[in-house]
Amino acid sequence: MGHHHPGSVSPLRTLTAAVRHHRDRNVGPVKTVKLPRRKLDFFASVLQRFGELHAPVARNGHFVFQRVRRWSEARLEYTRTELPPKKYFLPPRETLFRFTPGKGYVPESEDLDRRIVLLGVHACDIYSLNILDLVFNGKYPDPYYQTRRRNIALIGVDCIPDQRCFCRSMRADTVEQGFDLFFYDIGDYYLTLVGTALGDDMVLAAGELFESVTPDDVAEYKRRSQERHQRFQLDVEIRDLPEIFEMEYGSEIWEELGAKCLSCGSCSMVCPTCYCYDVADETQLGSTAGRRVRTWDSCLFATHAAVAGGENFRHSRASRVKFRFYHKQRGFVAEYGRPSCVGCGRCSAVCPVGIDIIEVINRLRGVEYAETEHAATR
Amino acid sequence: MQATKPTVGIFGLTGCAGDQLVILNCEDELLSLVDVVDIRDFLMAASGGDEFSTLDIAFVEGAVMTRRDEEKLQRIRRRAKALVAIGTCALQGGVPAMADGLDWPSAVRDVYGPEGDGFDALPARALHECVEVDFSLPGCPIEKHEFLGAVADLLNGNPPQLPTYAVCTECKMRECDCLLVDQGRFCHGPLTRAGCRARCPSYAVPCVGCRGPVPDPNLGSAMDVYTSKGWSPEEVVQRLRTFGPLPTPVPAGEAA
Q1: Which of A23, A189, A280, B54 is a plausible cystine mate for A34, CB 3.0–4.6 Å?
Q2: Strand order of the sheet with strand A152-157?
Q3: Mean pLDDT across chain A, nearest whole number?
Q4: Nearest neighbour of A259 by CB, restricted to B151, B216, B252
């Protein structure tokens, strides 16, 4: 089995040096402007100067982030993409470096240099990247992740929650940082928060496109913000959840979920904050030279906690399902001060057996699964 | 001059020869392949192979369905240091093993009439049911990249690295539409071993399970999923047996 911890990548000096000059993304909004909605396509063409433009597009009734060559393909009113923007920063499969015994290794860096502008990212997905930053920019910095984070600009867009969204409960329905620009729909305009110096450059590059914000615009923003807040159909209480998880370690629910789970890995793949990966060396035919490849992994796989000697720390399916919930809702809180779940709803949407995180949390809390109740009582 | 190269044999028992074809279709890599191994016996590529030399690696496709297959396999086993089963027939019987559980003589007679009685035809068996198998490459047919990777690994003294997770994982990585959850089609993805990079679902064709089951399929829960979508338990079992025998699934509640 390969490594599962981001710290296990060999240090790549050249990349790490580049990352030291990493621009501080964590400056708060410095100004607010507005963009006429009908000029968005024009702004999109301005953005091409800052990198390849990627945005959500429709594919067979679903949405995916991909490169847009014509702005008309973009769908900013989308619900959620199949994969979160995680795929840009931690690709499903990537070559880390090529090695030749006796000669050393050469980092794979070609793809890292791609400058991309990701337009149309929802608050929960930006929040999830801020969470991944805690892991990949923390104690064990990951130069691949960091370099991509530096080269990929993020432009957020607000959204209307659907029947699967519970980001409000997970305190990820708004973000204060982690974006270069953030668009709020206020009718004929997008109220635009400028989050970084790069974002400011984009606004400046657009010349006369952006306009000053009026008190009426602010009033309209507030009205829509309040309306959005009330449109959430799902609610779950996360206060003292780690403690409840601790007390319910022996709950029968874990065996029940273990009996249902197919270990198909879908939930982990689509999760914006699942960051486990496996690392393996692939050699060339007839040679000991080759490349080191990292691939997404999942704690639901039987191999995830398998170790040398044939032992397995989480042999039963129930223990693996439990582990996933505990890492998100309890372990991550202990380590970083908040759950790693952002409430995007993707895991519940893709699970073939209908395992629903809200249902699990509510059952552990001993409360009824009360869809829309919260919104209805307002 | 070639004495130091590892020797290799590639063989077929009862099957469609599709796995051997995949090897021959490695057109860009064939020269590199023969550069590093000495292919002694590969009837599909050339007649006049050396039938007696010892082999460092023997790749065998197909199911054991005749006495002749069985004897051939035993001869290969005696010659080979490492025996690699290639393709779903070799791993688990494949499509011919669909007949598992039927009364064999009457099945043969139903298909061939009285002449069937004279046929040397046995119920399909996987290679490991007859001889010791060292490594396996699943697929119907096998994947080119997995075969070449396996050769590279074996030449370096390592077991081939193959995914053991489900097709769903690779399907999600490619952002294909979920044919099971969203379209309610019978997709074997959650139960089937990945490695194909979800080729069929990427073309909106449901997975039929050709690579065989993951090592620990949750058949009880899968049965609940399929029946809740309208398939009868009998039909589910039939579909899951397309590429070989599976333990009869039971609803999760009744699982031991």
Answers
A1: A189
A2: A31-36, A189-194, A181-185, A152-157, A116-121, A52-59, A62-67
A3: 90
A4: B252
B186-245, pLDDT tens digit by residue?
999 999 999 999 999 999 999 999 999 999 899 999 999 999 999 999 999 999 999 988
Residues A312-341: tens digit of each pLDDT: 999 999 999 999 999 999 999 999 999 999
**B152, B172, B220 ranked by CB distance to A269: nearest:** B172
Q: pLDDT (tens digit, 9 = 90+) per residue, A44-60?
A: 999 999 999 999 999 98
Tell me the pLDDT tens digit for each residue of A98-126. 999 999 999 988 789 899 999 999 999 99
Residue in A92, A301, A352 nearest the CB of B173: A92
pLDDT at A215 over 50: yes
* Residue A352 to residue B138: CA distance in whole angstroms: 24
Query: Which residues in chain A have Cβ-Cβ distances shorter than 8 Å to B156?
Result: 283, 288
- The nearest alpha carbon in chain A to B6 belongs to A286
Give the whole-number percent of chain A exceeding pLDDT 90: 84
Which of A230, A265, A289 is at the close of a domain? A230
Question: Which residues from B are below 8 Å from A62, CB to CB?
Answer: 175, 177, 182
Taking contacts as CB-CB distances below 8 angstroms, the residues of chain A near B207 are none
Kindly state the tokens that stand for B212. 């065989």
pLDDT attached to residue B53: 93
Mean pLDDT over all residues of chain B? 92
Domain boundary among A230, A250, A271: A230
A194 belongs to a structural domain: yes
Looking at the complex, report in whole angstroms how far the Cα of residue A259 sits from the nearest Cα belonging to chain B: 7
Query: What letter would DSSP give residue A337?
Result: S
Q: Which residue in A has a C-alpha nearest to residue B179's C-alpha?
A: A352
Domain locations along chain B: 7-155, 167-254
pLDDT of residue A367: 83
Residues from chain A that touch B175, judged by Cβ atoms under 8 A, are 59, 62, 64, 81-83
Beta carbons of B216 and A352 less than 8 Å apart: no
Measured between beta carbons, the chain B residues lying within 8 angstroms of A290 are 152
Contact by Cβ (8 Å): B225, A353: yes
Residues A87 and A128 placed together within one structural domain of the fold: yes
Find the CB nearest A263 among B29, B166, B173.
Answer: B166
Fold of B7-155: Rossmann fold (3.40.50)
User: Could you tell me where the DSSP H helices lie in chain B?
Assistant: 18-24, 30-36, 67-79, 88-92, 104-112, 144-155, 167-173, 199-202, 219-228, 233-240
Kind and range of the H or E run holding A15 = helix A13-20
Say which amino acid occupies A31.
Answer: K
